[in-house]
Amino acid sequence: MFAIERYQKAESVAQAVGMLAADPFARAIAGGTDVLVRLRDGHLDYANLVDIHALSELTGISLEDGALSVGAGTTFTALMESPLVTAHAPLLAQAAARVAGPQIRNVATVGGNLCNGSVCADSAPPLLVLEALLEFAGPEGTRRAPLRGFHLGPGKVALGRAEILTAIRVPVAPGRDFGAAYEKYAMRRAMDITTIGCAAAVRFDGQAVAELRLAYSVAAPLPVRCPAAEAAAMGQPFTMATLEAVARAVEADVTPRTSWRASKEFRMHIIREMARRVITQAAARAGRSPA
Amino acid sequence: MILQCTVNGQAIRREVEPGLSLLDALREWGFTGTKQGCGVGECGACTVLLDGVPTNACLTLAVWAEGKAVRTIEGEAASGTLSPVQQAYLEAGAVQCGFCTPGLVMTTTAFVEKHRGRAPEAPEISREAIRTAHAGHLCRCTGYDTIVTAVELALGKSVSPETREGDVLRPGGKAATSCPHSKD
Question: Is the ipTM of this complex over 0.85?
Fold first, then answer.
């Protein structure tokens, strides 16, 4: 038995918001693959649940106004199998395929992956380089905010107590001069927590890098974009030398720590190497290779 | 709260607490073929099919099965005859202690149903793809290779003698078609 003291099933987002607003101890549960593990571990902060599991208002992927809108309740399997995601944001399908294993992916949601504030969330670096916009429903109505700035620290996000993340909007990739990729470095190829996750998106102007976006998980107390590394590539020709400059500059953007999974020195090595490999992979998707 | 669902085609209507996991519910109702290995979704021993979708029952609230069709290992050997997937596990020598087997068989059953009719050389059913689809399962006994072979057999792929372990086939090439523990 899970130590659930109070359980309320929400039939709609509006009802869920009302239930959260009315009870200061209530927390939302969607896929349950993090919340139920926390409960089993004895953390009673989730003993009081508002159930939004499989709520149809929160699932659904659509294309509107040049952006892909992904319901926060979309499972990782649904992301992988969505023709819209494959066509317009294949990076998300690539990242989704690296989460845990099939059974978990069948129920775990991209919204939950963001809202639990996990530093190693596989959905965070890809959504950061895609410059995702988050949509929320709360007691005061709806609001939107960029994903960048949503994470505040390990396990902490800028989500109001009675708010529900409803959707994630991603601008559609602008065509042939744009490529993005995600790699997850972990000890195993499945069922493992990320040691370092890296996402890169590159926009080209001819053979020069018009814009680089680089993001990491587990390289800092929250998932981060890398302004120094990105600046090192801006306007530069796409060459091995530029990749090296990025790999050197990224040290200023990250603060990896030593844990049982990997030492800080090893993480820094992985961070640099992944910058080279993931940017190269992203560029290949735009038909470019480093000179 | 009242939960109504089906388990292996049989209608179930029971009073459940919100905190009851589907794993604990199934085992309480006598479906003890579904095992608890880790209780936190990391081993796959508790895998059941929920409306055909492989799911860790240990991380599923029983109330989430409302209105759904649950399939457990008990539903697979109908009237004492092993399902083709179970038969394939037998022929490939993919069962040792058997603890991980019910969960694996459920995942394989869904996988085989999903890929029915695919050409044997299709990348979606390569050994690599089989490993990826079954990556949510841990087995401490077999080393996984015989399990992958079992899935290939279940898919109807012909498997070369080199990929089989030992003499798992009886002379003549076909193993028994009834459960070896039955009395006949």
Answer: yes
